[in-house]
Amino acid sequence: MSPLRILPAVLLALISISTLPAADDDAASLPAEVQQRVDAIRQVAAQHKDEENAFRAKQTEAQLKLQDLQQQRLKSLRGVEEARKGLTAAEANLKKEQEAATKAEEAKQAADKAASDAASTLTAAQKKAAETKVALESATQAAASARAAAEPKPEAEGDDKAEEKPQPTEQQIAELKAAAKAA
After folding, report:
1. CA nearest neighbour of 165 among 177, 155, 152, 178
2. What pLDDT digit, counting tens, does each position of 96-114 carry?
3. Do 69 and 122 share a domain, yes or no?
4. What is the pLDDT of residue 115?
5. Which whole number is the average pLDDT over 132-160?
6. Residue 152 resides in a domain
């Protein structure tokens, strides 16, 4: 039975009891029927008091459970907030790592291009050195030829006339100078 349904009856009983004389007064002076009614009302009031105490105990227990659930909810909300902060930090770290990886890739590409450019420069320098070597060898041969042409030849024995020595032409001299400068 719900305490709210009994409440009007209990209030009526309490009002009736308050108008009756106390139990330790002359109980014998009351008629037996009235005494039975008083005892019944007291018994109903005692039952109501017990039910009210049980109801309050259940209400207190329910409030404690509610408080416990609210605390658990707050802890859960804090946990969710901490998880969000952790996720945000992880996203920021991931972004930094991606930026660092991008920069590293760009640096690698720049290094590869510099190595390629250096290889091209080296190839061009080797080609120029080979050309210079060929020009130097040509100049050396031209100089040897010019010296050989400039040296006097021994006269042949029975020949009364001395042979004329060929002189290098201006063109040969210009070629020799150009080859020497290139070397």
Report:
1. 152
2. 999 999 999 999 999 999 9
3. no
4. 93
5. 74
6. no
Q: Kindly state whether residues 105 and 137 are assigned to the same domain.
A: no
| DSSP secondary structure letters along 86-119 | HHHHHHHHHHHHHHHHHHHHHHHHHHHHHHHHHH
Q: Where is pLDDT greater, at 163 or 148?
A: 148
Residue range of the domain that includes 182 = 118-147+168-183
Decide: 135 and 182 in contact? Cβ < 8 Å: yes
- Its pTM stands at 0.39
Whether 14 is covered by a domain: the verdict is yes
- What does the block give as tokens for 120? 């091209």
What DSSP string runs through 123-138?
A: HHHHHHHHHHHHHHHH
For the chain, the domain total comes to 2
